[in-house]
Amino acid sequence: MVPHADSPHDSGLSAPESTRGSIPPAADTPLDLQTKENTASDETPIESDRSAGEEAEFKEGGYGWVVVVSVLLVNAHTWGLNSAYAVFLAYYLRSGAVAGASPLGFAFVGGLSISIALLVSPLVTWCIGRFGTAFALRVGVVLEAGSFIGASFSTHIWHLLLSQGVCFGLGLGFCFTATVGVVPQWFTKRRSFANAVATCGSGFGGLTYSLATNAMISNLGLAWAFRILAILAFVVNGACSLIVRDRNKAVGAVHIAFHKDLFKLTEFWLFLGWGFFSLLSYVIVVFSLPDYAQQVGFTASQGSLAGALFNLSQGIGRPIIGFVSDRLGRINVAALGTLIAGLAAFFLWIFAGPHFGGLVVYALFGMFAGIIWPCVAPVGAEVVGLQLLPAALSIYWLVLVLPATFSEVIALSLRSTGVAGYINVQVFTGTMYIASFLSLWLLRSWKLQQLELLGLNDQQIADYRPGSVRSYLRGMLTVRRV
Question: Who is most buried in 49, 55, 253, 475, counting CB within 10 A?
Answer without folding.
Answer: 253
